[in-house]
Amino acid sequence: MNRLFGRATELAQLNRVFQEVREGKTGRGRLVSLAGATGIGKSTLAQACLENITTSDPRALTLSARCVQGRTPHRPYGPFTDMLAQMRLMSGDPTLPGMLQKEAPGWQPDAAQTAGRNALFDQFLALCRAISRQRPLVLFFDELQWSDRSSLDLLARLASGLASLPVLLLVTFEDTTPECAASVKGIQHRAGPHCIDLTVRGLEQDTIIQLAETILDGQLAGDLSGWLSVAAQGNPLRVEQFVYLLAESGLVRKRLFRFSARARQLPVQSSGVYDIIASRLDGLEPNLRWMLEAAAFGGSIVDTAVVAAQVGTKPDVVRAQLYTAAEEHGLVTGLGDQRWPTGKWSVRFRFCHPMIRRALADRVPEKRRDHLLSRAADMLGRLAGDEANEFIGEIAALYISAGLEEKAHEWSLRAADLAERLYATYEVDEFLRVAARTTEDERERLRIENRLAKIYAATGRGPEAEALE
Q: Where are the strands (E) in 48-192, listed by range?
């Protein structure tokens, strides 16, 4: 959902920061971190800021990437490669691809290995400098707590250079995440005085009602607005999910130009967001729910070609169902067309909130889950063809999750090769350990372990993330 309510103060603050960076009088950039609880509206606020930036200054270049739990951590520099891919597709500005080739040749697909990790990082910084000389540059990292660790190192390097790098780095992250999630404190420390922390807080009562009435396209009666004000707990995601649940269940009706509901039929106000979403999923049409469950295991982006292969139907059918999920239920949002290296076209979507993906995935039995994961990996490999570098890590992760050891071994070795070329030591370590674990050949296992030892000896470092120190 892209509805923004009650954030005028925060949005004005973000706009002021951008104006300071754009004016460039000091040549300094900024790191703005938006923190807050699940569903509080961090991503929506950031997206509204990006829209304001492009509206106020059409020259501005805004690049964004969302980190996905269980997927992005397996893609070395995944958020950055997503941003670079966006640049390559910007046909409206023919200077960008040439600038990318000149300043950052090591970041090109199938590029030769650079002289070292520092050289690779320096190339990305040089690209940012070259762009910022011509136009304002904004890099947005959504859900950063699920980033791969190599990206955190590069982001830390960018943050440490903000004293002379006029770039706006905008990140969102949850400040209450499990221990397995990445930390952003090291990056904030690197930015020093150029870091601005902004905590996104709950909505006021009148804003909650305004949001609910916008979703329903009508006014709420007093009893329903009072109930929702308490149930929402100031959280926009709770508002949206409660309102959709009431509408889809037929519990709200429009009488005398206002929506009302019988108090005894309303759900428990203290219900968790996860439980509310799960209740909504129970009420979906079975074929739609079946398709969405498949999409939850289809990779970081929901792709109609991948989902069609998972469920054994035509992409047009999947596309129609996903548009229904978007327009009638607010579960996914469209991202536009995708042209794959093999020439095939598809349509991409993403879940409106990560918790929707998780609630769908938790419903799927293990046997079907493994089937969906393996079919998604197979299709991604076919779509990418010989230019699969961008997806190697994700394909490997899907096969690993599906428990297909032969495929996991093959793709883990390929992913390790790519990670080594990019000096992504953490991902090299991860994929080589998987490759060693998924082979029954003792000599092959020893070769893999020796390779890993040589990599550490050559680089003089183990898998400790600079950004986490």
A: 61-66, 137-142, 167-174
Q: Which two tokens stand for residue 146?
A: 């699920």
Instruction: Mention every residue, 6+ apart, whose C-beta is less than 8 A from residue 435.
Output: 409, 412, 413, 416, 448
β-pair partners for 345: 339
Read off the pLDDT of residues 214-236 as tens digits, 9 standing for 90 and up: 999 899 998 899 999 999 999 99
Computed from CA positions of residues 406, 410, 411, 413, in that sequence, does the dihedral angle turn out positive or negative?
positive
CB 65 within 8 A of CB 135: no
Q: Is 469 helix (H, G, I), strand (E, B) or coil?
A: coil
Residue 281: beta bridge partners? none
Q: What are phi and psi of 196, to 5 degrees?
A: -120, 120
CB 229 within 8 A of CB 239: no
Residue 413, amino acid: L
pTM: 0.91
Of the CA atoms within 13 Å of residue 135, those in its CB half-sphere come to: 19
Distance CA 354, CA 296 (A): 10
Radius of gyration over alpha carbons of the chain, in Å?
Answer: 23
* DSSP annotation string for 313-352: S-HHHHHHHHHHHHHTT-SEEEEEEEE-TTS-EEEEEEES
Structure tokens at 374: 């393996």
Place of tokens 């979906």: 284
Place of tokens 């300043």: 103
Residues 95 and 122 sit within 8 Å (Cβ to Cβ): no
Determine if residue 306 is left, alpha or beta; phi over 0 gives left, psi from -120 to 50 gives alpha, anything else beta.
alpha
173 touches 143 (CB < 8 A)? yes
Alpha carbon distance 353, 276 (integer Å):
13
Place of tokens 């139907």: 313
Cα 66 to its chain centre, rounded Å, is 2
Q: Which amino acid is at 65?
A: A
pLDDT in tens, 429-454: 999 999 999 999 999 999 999 998 88
Cα–Cα–Cα angle for 331, 337, 342, rounded to 5 degrees = 125
Which of left, alpha, beta for 39 (phi over 0: left; psi -120 to 50: alpha)?
left
